Amino acid sequence: QARSDRRALLVDPSSTPAEALPWLASFLGLVLDDRWAEAARRRLIAEINTLYVRRGTLGAIRRYLEIYLAG
Fold first, then answer.
1. Angstrom distance (rounded) from CA 33 to CA 69
2. Are 42 and 15 in contact (CB under 8 A)?
3. How far is CA 29 from the centre of its chain?
4. Which of 29, 43, 52, 71 is most deeply packed, by most CB within 10 A?
5. What are 28-50's pLDDT values in tens digits?
């Protein structure tokens, strides 16, 4: 059970260690920019599936900017 709990922490962008964020992002086809704030990178990972579906739309671009600027 403990191993399962630790594994769950690694796949949650809000709880995974900062050094594991690029690893987690890679499962989603995402390459993170280290210049972004850690909070912004976590939020981007959490929302990338929704953003990908809406890619190219004004709403998605606006959300990317919100995530980046809030970070």
1. 14
2. no
3. 11
4. 43
5. 999 999 999 999 999 999 999 99
